[in-house]
Specification:
Helix content: under 10%
Number of helices: 0
Oligomer: single chain
Distance between the termini: 40 Å
Radius of gyration: 14 Å
Largest sheet: 7 strands, mixed
Number of strands: 11
Length: about 120
């Protein structure tokens, strides 16, 4: 089992910044791909940024150039630095860990942290 605990959400004005953290209960980054997802009211959950076990990074087009995903292996923590925030970034942000073994997906979710961008 893996527990993921997010923190760092809150209320911020447009143009502001927040840094989200996702702490894993044990060392997993060497075998799990990590991702930040978000879900706004009435919308499907979407991938915002991901970092593979090998260190490959991807971003949704809507956040490229504004968000940065990173990880600290020593602290078992993944971060999402969010800059130039927009009202449309408002959502609950979830941390995800997943791996595939012989085609079977194993995954874990955090409890989510609310991000609200409003003046």
């Amino acid at each position: 089992q893996v527990q993921l605990v997010e923190s760092g959400g809150g209320l911020v004005q447009p143009g502001g910044s927040l840094r989200l953290s996702c702490a894993a209960s044990r060392t997993i980054f060497d075998i799990y791909n990590m991702g930040w997802y978000r879900q706004a009211p009435g919308k499907q959950r979407e991938l915002v940024a991901g970092i593979s076990s090998g260190g490959d990074i991807q971003y949704a087009d809507s956040v490229k150039g504004r968000f940065t995903i990173s990880r600290d292996n020593a602290k078992n923590t993944v971060y999402l630095q969010m800059n130039s925030l927009k009202p449309e970034d408002t959502a609950v942000y979830y941390c995800n860990a997943e791996k595939y073994i012989v085609g079977v997906r194993y995954y874990y979710w955090g409890q989510g942290t609310q991000v609200t961008v409003s003046s």
